[in-house]
Amino acid sequence: VQLVESGGGLVQPGGSLRLSCAASGFTFSSYAMRWYRQSPGNEREWVATITSNGGLTNYADSVKDRFTISRDNAKKTVALQMNRLKPEDTAVYYCNARMWTDYWGQGTQVTVSS
Predict the structure, then answer these.
(1) Which one of 7, 58, 85, 87 is separated from 13 by 20 to 30 angstroms, measured CA to CA?
(2) Phi, psi (5° rounding) for residue 106?
(3) Angle, vertex CA 84, rays to CA 96 and CA 89, nearest 5
(4) CB 110 within 8 Å of CB 17
(5) How far from chain centre, in Å, is Cα 101?
């Protein structure tokens, strides 16, 4: 199993970023996918989930109505569109696949600052 995140960077408050996670090594279309984030001094927190066929999504209250999770099963990718970013969204963002264990990518840094 391999998960590779990309798309992070520095953005001003109110701006947007789109993260992407490329998956390989498992039957991507059979599993729900998740995004998590972790900021310095804090535990890793769940951000969003999308079901295996993309039909259902769920979000943490802190990102609801600002972030959108999506997936492309043909390309084996999952994305996180982040709009109206706030300084408190600054974190390393991780892609997650949960099977008999949790699999994680290496993370991508998102910094929201003026």
Answers:
(1) 58
(2) -85, -15
(3) 45
(4) yes
(5) 18
Beta carbons within 8 Å of 55's beta carbon, 6+ residues apart: none
SS3 30: helix
Question: What's residue 93's pLDDT?
Answer: 98
The encoded tokens of residue 113 equal 């600052």
Task: Please identify which residue in the block is written with the tokens 């609801």.
Answer: 64
Kindly report, residue by residue over 71-91, the tens digit of the pLDDT: 999 999 999 999 999 999 999
Question: Which tokens go with 4?
Answer: 């590779």
Query: How many residues are there in the chain?
Result: 114
SS3 53: coil
Q: Are the beta carbons of 93 and 105 closer than 8 angstroms?
A: no
Residue 42, CA distances (Å) to 35, 38, 57, 88 in order = 16, 6, 25, 12
Mean pLDDT of 5-26: 98
103 neighbors 1 (Cβ within 8 angstroms) = yes
